[in-house]
Design a protein that fits this description.
heterodimer, A: 255 residues, mainly alpha, two-stranded antiparallel sheet, 11 helices, 2 strands, globular, B: 255 residues, 76% helix, elongated
Chain lengths: 255, 255
């Protein structure tokens, strides 16, 4: 907790020190979000629904995914970006000898402040959009849980991908795979062929992660999916912990 | 001759880091497939044969071309240049009797050479115009656009003299090419008024225009050739300017 507060203070100072860069970061990061919204308008100008999905559902889908991504960015992105660098250049030593849990310390030692502003924007959007859905406390609760699970999934997959750097060298696209997959699969599930739907729901559930928050308002057996995702994430967490343990044993540096 | 060596260097680098390249290609192909899936379900659920004077077949052709040209027009010069500035490697180039522009250009052609070949063959195969002249003009246009796009990327790259973080730019430029390049939907779907002026921006010139030539929406390329030449001159002038100011700010020790 104390460490988190320290991370927050350091991040705030860095944010203020590099003001122009930070402001630019914020403006440019909204670009992708606006693209998705514009595309949403274009997709729905002809017919007003698509396999049971209306325009508001679609817009809610893309804003919710932005919420998930920004939440991940706030807490983990800077840590993850530095982490793969540190592993490859051998600068991990200083962090490994600290008397803290190195797994959590390394990923949470900075907070990305521009993303907080981004989150405020996309969060505001989703509040407006969500009012068009059938609302009750139960569904809102499930919606928030689905977002939480989404952030967890993206974090864990990235953590695992970055831990692979302990063994593989020169595969820099590795860090971007999850981000790309999230962007690619930010489309309503019914547009995909059945096989793809099943693969990306059960084997590599990225489609489930992106669609689940909106499915909460449409689908009845969403509890099953939420449970499935939760169990999967516990497994992934164990895997990432093990990879961290063996990876840091495998790690060598010339420092 | 020395530039040829640099070009070959680029090509070799490309083949050395195969896994990165394959990941990029798979991502791009997936994006294309998903766009096509999305549009097919829009055609299917709206029950119309043509949307905005485009039938499903033309739509698929359009999306295939825009997505394949997107691979050719890569943003890599920005990050290569930024990396050189920030790590101080630019000094090596400055000390040698070669131009920075030429060095980057040769390297870029080298890395993109396989895609140049692929795109050329594709264009020759797909364009079934009555006259072969248009196909040749299209190929010439593509080369011109390639140089123009490269200059633009280098101009953006010179911003690294002033900016610390370049990664947010990546998502902003991706967003531009997604919308303006027509990767998600044909540019003309934004409405005639916006479209009339928007079609002359660099991102649309490199992918939307060739795609419209192939789908028989354009028969006269001359306004677009003029636009490309204007952009080319403009970016070259701005580049000369920026590099002159930027190089004074450059310290050569890395930021």
């Amino acid at each position: 907790m104390k460490l988190l507060r320290l991370a927050w203070q350091l991040s705030l100072q860095e944010f203020l020190a590099y003001k122009t860069t930070s402001i630019l970061t914020f403006i440019l990061a909204t670009a992708f979000f606006s693209v998705e919204v514009i595309t949403g308008f274009v997709y729905f100008t002809m017919g007003n629904q698509l396999n049971g999905w209306h325009q508001t559902d679609y817009l809610l889908l893309v804003t919710t995914i932005s919420n998930i991504v920004y939440l991940y960015n706030i807490f983990f992105i800077i840590g993850h970006e530095n982490l793969s660098n540190k592993i490859l250049t051998g600068a991990l030593d200083y962090d490994l000898i600290r008397p803290v849990n190195s797994y959590w310390y390394l990923v949470m030692n900075r907070i990305d402040i521009p993303s907080i502003i981004n989150l405020a924007i996309s969060g505001g959007f989703s509040v407006i959009l969500i009012r068009h859905e059938t609302l009750n406390i139960y569904s809102i609760g499930l919606y928030l849980i689905a977002i939480g699970l989404g952030v967890g999934f993206i974090f864990l997959m990235n953590q695992i991908a970055i831990s692979l750097n302990f063994w593989i060298d020169g595969f820099s696209a590795l860090g971007g795979i999850i981000e790309n997959a999230t962007n690619l699969f930010s489309r309503p599930m019914p547009i995909f062929p059945q096989v793809i739907q099943i693969i990306f729901t059960f084997v590599f559930p990225i489609l489930l992660v992106t669609n689940l928050p909106v499915m909460v308002f449409k689908n009845s057996n969403v509890i099953f999916y939420l449970g499935y995702l939760a169990i999967l994430e516990i497994l992934l967490f164990i895997v990432s912990k093990l990879m961290w343990k063996y990876g840091s044993q495998h790690y060598l540096s010339a420092n | 001759m020395k530039y040829l060596v640099m070009g070959v260097n680029g090509l070799v680098t490309k083949f050395t880091y195969r896994s990165n390249e394959i990941t990029n290609l798979i991502t791009q192909m997936l994006q294309m497939t998903i766009s096509i899936c999305m549009w097919l379900s829009i055609y299917y659920s709206s029950g119309k044969y043509t949307i905005n004077q485009m039938n499903a077949h033309q739509m698929i052709q359009y999306l295939v071309i825009t997505n394949l040209t997107a691979i050719l027009f890569s943003t890599s010069p920005i990050f290569r240049f930024a990396n050189q500035v920030q790590s101080g490697q630019l000094t090596t180039t400055l000390l040698r009797p070669i131009s920075i522009y030429g060095e980057h250009m040769a390297f870029y052609i080298g890395t993109q050479f396989p895609y140049l070949c692929i795109n050329f063959t594709l264009f020759i195969l797909l364009s079934n115009h009555a006259t072969n002249a248009l196909t040749f003009i299209l190929l010439g246009y593509l080369i011109l656009a390639f140089v123009m796009f490269f200059s633009l990327m280098l101009v953006i790259g010179t911003l690294s003299f002033w900016l610390i973080n370049m990664w947010p730019l990546r998502s902003a430029i991706n967003a531009c090419s997604l919308i303006l390049g027509g990767l998600y939907f044909p540019l003309s779907f934004l409405g005639q008024k916006t479209f009339r002026w928007l079609q002359f921006n660099p991102f649309s010139l490199v992918s939307d225009v060739p795609a419209r030539v192939i789908t028989h929406k354009i028969n006269d390329l001359s306004p677009y050739i003029i636009a490309v030449v204007i952009w080319l001159l403009l970016t070259m002038i701005v580049y000369q300017r920026l590099i002159k100011i930027g190089i004074k700010k450059y310290e050569g020790i890395g930021i």
